[in-house]
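User: Could you walk me through two proteins back to back? I'd like the raw sequence and the structure tokens for each, with a short line separating them so I can tell where one ends and the next begins.

Assistant: Of course. Protein one, sequence then structure:
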Amino acid sequence: MVRSPLALAALATVAVPGLDAFDVRRPARPGTDFDTAVVIDGHRNRWVVRAPQHAAAGAALEAEVVLLSMLSAECEAGRLPFAVPAPVGFAHLPEGGRAAVHAEIPGGPLRLERLAPGPGLAAALGRAIAAVHELPTSLVENAGLPAYDAGEYRQRRQAEVDEAARTGKVPPALLRRWEERLEDVALWRFRPTVVHGDLTSDRVLVHGDTVTGLLHWGDACVADPADDLAWLLVTAPADAMDSIMEAYQMRRTELTDPHLADRALLAGELALARWLLYGVRTQDDEIIDDAVAMLEDLDAHTREDHDAEAAPQLA
């Protein structure tokens, strides 16, 4: 069931007493698990309404709501340098579950090409991610979201690689590369932290050189902080990464993780394995083909890097 913008606006007026809907707009990038709209009231205030499309999304929303209420308190106390989409009202849905409404956070999605070396947006992004990792892990645990120690998380990664291997679609050299890193015990000595769990440029809102908000906290957990850096190491301009990591490290109190970047790169690679597994589970040939093509590209690039490293030794 896909709800129309007008239906979502009606839910917003129920959720927030006194809200007089003047206009309603679809977001630029609608999600797949939630019907979403931006409702503008008579005072030009902007509200975001999210209604789950299925029961699993509804359950995820309920867990996220508990966490967001606690994160909002962290924002008010100044321990998070950005806003979170904490709901201000709810509307029950006929089929069960409820829609949530929050005030729209100012700013627009991060454009990665704007990241540049220096003390601007790149540094602000590093500090924002570090602030998440400095939160008390009890916030996630009290919200009933998953919490893993380092050993458990390594086992989860191993299970993913084993399942991907059984598809027969991962290049053998790439599998060996992953296995070697998973068997390197030193690589997996880290202190678990609160992690957002699904950071992308669409999840990060910015205005100028300021990070104004982080969205979509439904995958938050206590796990490996490297996971929240993986997308940047894969997609951000290389010359901006030093500024991101320097600001990140200066904001963290935990400075004894020499393999953070190594695990982040591995997490970025294993994201392709998870994409493949998603395609296999949903029997979506288009996703499977896309994942296989990306895995083959990764295998080719890692072989080139290996050959380039080996060449000076042979000279």
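----
Protein two, same layout:
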Amino acid sequence: MAVGASVCATIVADYKWSLRGLLGDEYEKAQHNVHERSADRLQRLCFANGGIYIKLGQHIAQLDHLLPEEYVLTMRRTMLDQCPVSPYPEVARIVREDLGSTPEELFATFEHEPIASASLAQVHRATSHDGRQLAVKVQHAGLRDSCTADTLTVEFLVKTVHLLFPKFDYSWLVDQIKESLPQELDFSVEVANAERCRKNFSSKQSHVRGRVAVPEILHPLCSKRVLTMEFVTGANVCDKAALARMGLKASDVARLVSETFNEMIFIFGDIHCDPHAANMLIRKKHGKAELVLLDHGLYKRITDDFRRQYAGLWRALVFGDAEGIKAHAAAMNAADSYKFFAGMLTMRPWDEVTRASADHLYLGSSPEERKMIQGYAAQFAREISDMLRRIPRPLLLLLKTNDCLRTVDACLGQPVNSFMMTARECTRALNEARMRERPGLRMRAACLADVIGVEARIAALALMSWWSRQNWRLFRRTSNRREAVQPPALAMPRAVT
């Protein structure tokens, strides 16, 4: 705790000292520098302590529309797939204690160097005695013993930051860690999550059946700290060059990812809550993209009532339905702050959320747009923190899932697809609920009419969005052409003005 408190105090002092009395460009430059220094300090603290601190860093890496990009980029470079590595003797000891034999006895081959390391475990490649290629996930030593103390330390740091900067209150993050960490430290929970996921996407209810895979698990070689599964190869979901080499379109991959997680949320109510790029692989199967889901340690199962409310909320958000947003925000303890609630979910101001065009669906990824979104989040940081304390606990993990998917979606360059898929799956979930409550031909016809109406609305919005972007590109090209031929003597007065 002393080390964490020291780092926290250093960061706070750096901000107070470096930014005192500065304005304008000097303030912006100094703030950028102190952001970078502080992000480096926080990263070193996370790596030095491991475990829960790495989880914290990974969460920061996904909040690219809420936190300064210096923090996000620093964490993203290292926290997702370059975590500290446990030495092989510790790995062998945990395998022997949990499975009763050494890795050399249990497997035909077992590579001492891990092929990947994450916050709570690392993965080693192995071969079974019958020749199968395997991946063996082994938990880092000592995490169970230090879990409580580390959680208390992080809670102390969060409270210290809130005391010094009242508008930043991340107590909700501590609550989330307290709830989820014990489950993530028990690999038997991950095994159960993975098997449910496989069952869901193999069912006739899934529209992506045959296009989503979960590595097969070898149950006799699993325990609370060891998980053995088939070894799967594939491209990182954000590696557009690798996707192109396989002959796959980024737009098709983006659509598949969106459909998959929308089904998890709105159809099955059983959600993988850590879908960052390192946990998703893409491979080609029968000429099409297949999504391989890894790391099933963090899941959230939601009730049917909550699922219907959440589906109704997102349908209202996608179509800019102000009254629907207000009603569903009230159901989630956000009645008096529905505008902030909508902004928190979409990262857009209220007037854009309710604008009658498709542009409100688009989450831009240019530096200017990113800066605008981060400024919006900073402006309303206090309201957002207060909101996160009041909303239902399941929604916290769903927000994290949204952050991760937003990052993947922007990386693939197809952000509109996600909202289109969301609209379809929300409608599907709501209609299925209506059919269960009031089965019959009349209700079936009403649901069919609803689906047709939604598809027509989506098509109209997509056409409007395409047309507005074509006009914008034409305007930019025309403007650039005019500037290129403008005499310097005429250009200067305009610049001065």
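Residues 138 and 226 are 5 Å apart (CA to CA).

Let me know if you want the two compared in more detail.
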